[in-house]
Amino acid sequence: NNKFYRHGQGWHCSEVGIVGAMVTDACFSARPSDVIIATLPKSGTTWMKSLLYATVHRRERPVVGAAAADQHPLNSWGPHDLIKFFEYQLYTRDRVPDLDRLPDPRLFATHVPFVSLPSSVVATPGCKIVYVCRDPKDHLVSLWDFVNKYFRVKDGLEPLSVEAAAELFCAGLTPFGPYWDHVLGYWRAHRADPDKVLFFRYEEMQRDPAAHVRRLAEFVGLPFSSEEEDGGVVDAVVGLCSFERMRGMAPTKGGRTEFPIGVVPNSSFFRQGVVGDWVNHLSPEMARRIDAITADKFRGSGLVV
Ligand code: A3P
Question: Which keywords does this chain's UniProt record carry (predicted)?
Fold first, then answer.
């Protein structure tokens, strides 16, 4: 069911997410070559999965040229199949997957806050975490739209007003929230060990995706060579994973992804893909309130969102 629960370490989620996180913590054994994407839902997870997959596999799965891009696995399998969520797809109440045979580097994703990550992810040197943070107002609007369209209305419930969604958000009652604790947890981990935790902002990725792809490649130990730079590989990765391209692909238009909390069309992960759409939904007063909470929570952390 989709009822909300509170994890003992202070965050909220459906039962599936909480149990999945606990089973992952108990059973996942990290390797030094693992890379884990961590995000709040609706913060650019699908985009980062695609960028990471394309970057890591670019040598055996070339991205340059229309033909190469057309045959790329991202076209046919979809980002959520290629990089699976620990707590939604891999570990559940009654399933512990065998991940030993997966080739290195293994790529995973999670929405779980830093404090509740599988302990072996944190303890294993070399195992890396890529975090993507998004402006809280855009995260909220994206989440509100997604939950209404793909869960509430489908389940015969009234859509939630944006005002009601904002109230819940401010009270910390969003999946894997409170938002601020989630962001700060990964921000502090990044500050403590930037080689372990990479910290990206969705808005900055939008401003300069190529620079972020380069940083990502360096972070995972696969920097682009000068031949690759000259051959346009960085731009090809960016192009392959662009919003327009991914939204237009056949598996996006026709496919569905199954999570234990429900089945959603792949198109649900591609709504607008812009910065600042909150302005079309949130009142100036609501926006000011969220900004004030954010400024208060992040004060002294060195983090400005
Ligand atoms: P919007 O609802 O604001 O459009 P997630 O993947 O974490 O669920 O995040 C979904 C959000 O990322 C949606 O935001 C979606 O449109 C946006 N998004 C998906 N793919 C993207 C891409 N390739 N580039 C930029 N934004 C993308």
Answer: Transferase
Q: What is the CA(236)–ligand 1 centre distance, in A?
A: 19
pLDDT tens digits for range 261-290: 788 999 999 999 999 999 999 999 999 999
Cα of 125 vs centre of ligand 1, distance in Å, is: 31
Verify whether ligand 1 is closer than 6 Å to residue 273 (CB atom): yes
Residue 304: partners with Cβ closer than 8 Å, 6 or more residues away: 298
The ligand 1 atom nearest the CA atom of 142 = 2
Residues annotated as catalytic are 111
**pTM, rounded to two decimals:** 0.97
For a mutational test of ligand 1's pocket, the pick from 40, 269, 280, i.e. the residue with the most ligand atoms closer than 8 A to its C-beta, is 269
Span 70-129, pLDDT tens digits = 899 998 888 999 999 999 999 999 999 999 999 999 999 999 999 999 999 999 999 999
- Cα–Cα dist 202/47, whole Å: 10
